[in-house]
Amino acid sequence: MDLKERIEQAKNIVFFGGAGVSTESGIPDFRSDNGLYKKKYRYSAEHMVSHSFFMQNPKEFYEFYFNQMIYPDAKPNKAHLALAHLENIGKCKAVITQNIDGLHQMAGSKHVFELHGSVHKNTCMHCHAHYDLHQTIEARDENGIPRCPKCGGIIKPDVVLYEEGLDQNVLYGAIQAIEQADMLIVGGTSLVVYPAAGLLDYFHGKDLVLINKSSTDRDGMADLVIHDAIGEVLSKAVF
């Protein structure tokens, strides 16, 4: 049975995706040859997106963050649009994403669990005022650090940095959605980052589908494995 047939038969689909979902929108992933972690900086990319680095070196953090992690002109691709369509017709009950770009919501998905937060949500560390991405970009001082217009405090993106824990409400919501699903489609993720990768263990439904350009350690447990670009695969299966 191919992916299209499985989707047609499913009643409660949950999608779990990683950086590979957004590469077709021009946003680089992390671990591929052209990925974020291969960029040459004075510090490793992992260290530069850690909580301790942010606290100790906000200028360098924001230089990296705004230059390498913010893509305000990115648009949803075929994968995002296919998933939004599946939600619109009542089949996809939730999207769980490790991405911080907000492209699923831009495509029209409403039930989205953002495990690692979003660049579109930003909060002043002092007075807790909230700002969107555009406001945060506009609020940068002469050192490139976004400052709260109300109190002058540093505006921190609501993204989960290394050394920070996931939002427990988001995590529990994602787990609950997976437990209730009869089909789990996992795409664009190498499944090496925990605790996110461990979410597969909560699935007890009928069809586990893995879509990724390269193989993963979980391929052996899937009912269907497709090594191809996720946008093309989902678009052909859905439309």
UniProtKB/TrEMBL annotation:
Active site: 116
All residue ranges annotated as the Deacetylase sirtuin-type domain in the record: 1-239
Keyword Transcription regulation part of the UniProt annotation: no
Sites where the protein binds Zn(2+): 124, 127, 148, 151
InterPro entries to which the protein is assigned, alphabetical: DHS-like_NAD/FAD-binding_dom, NAD-dep_sirtuin_deacylases, Sirtuin, Sirtuin_cat_small_dom_sf, Sirtuin_class_U, Ssirtuin_cat_dom
UniProt keyword Cytoplasm present: yes
Pfam families in alphabetical order: SIR2
Binding positions (NAD(+)): 19, 23, 30-31, 98, 100-101, 116, 189-190, 212, 230
Compartments where located: Cytoplasm
The protein's role, per its UniProt record: NAD-dependent protein deacetylase which modulates the activities of several enzymes which are inactive in their acetylated form.
Family: Belongs to the sirtuin family. Class U subfamily.
Name of the featured protein: NAD-dependent protein deacetylase
Organism: Faecalicoccus pleomorphus
